[in-house]
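FAQ

Q: What does a record look like?
A: Structure on top, sequence underneath. For example:
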């Protein structure tokens, strides 16, 4: 296939990247990972060019951070204007209008026909940490329930809430107390013989039993759920499961928190992933694509819950920085003006249809799933036993990188290809990227056959 957008030299990584890698290994701890052995020089839309002139189609989007594309003109314009005015004053010292404006807009678009208030912060993990603080303050309870395979961050509390031990938790304990992990559905890996409906009944029953066997509901402050699990493998729960968990929360005075760090802002075809499930969260955490690459996060919540904390108990030095606020306001404009929610649905349909067709030729394709353009393909050794095929997944990612596509894996077994391309990607760029994935899959399968 001729390449219109992606172009990688056969000697990749190039001279400049190798020199920077050498410096990187001397100065940066090995605990900071990287997906591809090169360094960015420029990025625009869905394309990234490295320091040696290699150009990649981006199917990663900084792990779901670049929904509106790299360097969107409206985001850059907003940032330039703000830099010329002032860079930072600290909202808790001298306030600025953009913080208030962003809070107003987030409150307006968030699900729930009730008064809301918004706290702005820096990172996704910080948003989840503060959601926990706010929930505990309001309920006067300590218990926090998250779910198996969930990912919520790398701080002490959010690392505790996260499931995947390696690489996120191994030898970093002891962990925070009063955190409990409930079962979360994984329809593809349900017990043999169970229909999806029967399996959902079973998981709902297990969640209710969890509140009898593992933790008393009257001690639980919040249940924190990803509406579609990100790092856990882009696993989509059944609508009835989410609604039953929500109802149990309401019955027991437990706050329902939707972690939208990766699923938010048009990624699933909605502003918030939880909108697919017709429930109204008490608290919502946001970050990643809200800022189009500028660090910002937030907690959106019922006004009475958000107001329980006293002055000085929430916030931080850089929380809701002017640059982050201006970038986020531009992002919200772009999503609305360019119809990115609708575009996300179209992208998802194209990706899933492509892999449904490919699955006719490759029995290593076990499952194809997702909401909107938050799509994933799970690779297995065979479709009967469904044994995870981590080795093949890693090879596909490496082959894709060499061919000019940024691609990452996910899942607790490391066997899921995840797709987080900028939603502004063109049809031609999307087609070329999918063709590279197909070529990479074919080459990887052949390599393993020849071993």
């Amino acid at each position: 296939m001729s390449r219109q957008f992606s172009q990688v030299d056969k000697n990749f990584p190039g001279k400049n990247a190798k020199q920077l890698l050498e410096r990187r290994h001397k100065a940066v701890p090995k605990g900071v990972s990287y997906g591809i052995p090169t360094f960015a020089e420029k990025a625009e839309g869905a394309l990234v060019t490295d320091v040696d002139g290699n150009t990649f189609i981006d199917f990663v989007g900084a792990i779901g951070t670049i929904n509106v594309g790299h360097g969107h003109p409206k985001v850059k314009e907003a940032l330039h204007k703000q830099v010329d005015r002032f860079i930072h004053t600290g909202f808790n010292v001298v306030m600025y209008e953009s913080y208030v404006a962003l809070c107003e807009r987030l409150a307006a678009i968030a699900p729930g026909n009730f008064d809301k208030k918004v706290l702005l912060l820096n990172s996704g993990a910080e948003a989840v940490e503060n959601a926990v603080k706010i929930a505990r303050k309001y309920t006067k309870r300590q218990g926090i329930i998250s779910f198996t395979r969930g990912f919520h961050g790398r701080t002490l509390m959010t690392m505790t809430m996260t499931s995947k031990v390696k690489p996120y938790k191994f030898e970093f304990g002891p962990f925070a107390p009063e955190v409990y992990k409930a079962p979360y559905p994984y329809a593809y890996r349900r017990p043999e013989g169970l229909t999806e409906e029967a399996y959902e009944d079973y998981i709902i029953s297990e969640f209710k039993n969890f509140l009898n066997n593992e933790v008393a509901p009257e001690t639980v402050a919040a249940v924190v759920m990803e509406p579609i699990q990100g790092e856990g493998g882009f696993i989509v729960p059944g609508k009835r499961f989410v609604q039953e968990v929500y109802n149990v929360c309401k019955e027991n005075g437990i706050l329902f928190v939707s972690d939208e760090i990766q699923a938010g802002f048009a990624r699933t075809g909605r502003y918030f992933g939880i909108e697919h499930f017709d429930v109204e969260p008490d608290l919502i955490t946001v970050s990643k694509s809200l800022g189009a690459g500028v660090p910002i996060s937030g907690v959106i919540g019922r006004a009475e819950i958000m107001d329980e904390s006293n002055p000085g108990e929430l916030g931080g030095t850089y929380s809701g920085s002017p640059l982050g606020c201006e970038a986020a306001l531009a992002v919200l404009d772009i999503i609305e003006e360019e119809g990115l929610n609708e575009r996300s649905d179209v992208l998802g349909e194209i990706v899933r249809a492509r892999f449904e067709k490919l699955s006719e030729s490759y029995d290593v394709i076990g499952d194809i799933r997702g909401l909107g353009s938050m799509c994933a393909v799970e690779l297995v050794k065979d479709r009967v036993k469904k044994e995870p095929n981590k080795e093949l997944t890693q090879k596909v990612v490496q082959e894709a990188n060499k061919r000019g596509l940024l691609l990452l894996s996910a899942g607790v077994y490391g066997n899921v290809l995840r797709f987080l391309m900028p939603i502004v990607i063109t049809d031609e760029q999307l087609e070329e990227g999918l063709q590279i994935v197909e070529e990479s899959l074919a080459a990887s399968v052949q390599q393993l056959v020849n071993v």
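Q: Is there anything notable about this one?
A: Residues 95-337 form a domain with the Aspartate Aminotransferase; domain 2 fold (CATH 3.40.640.10).
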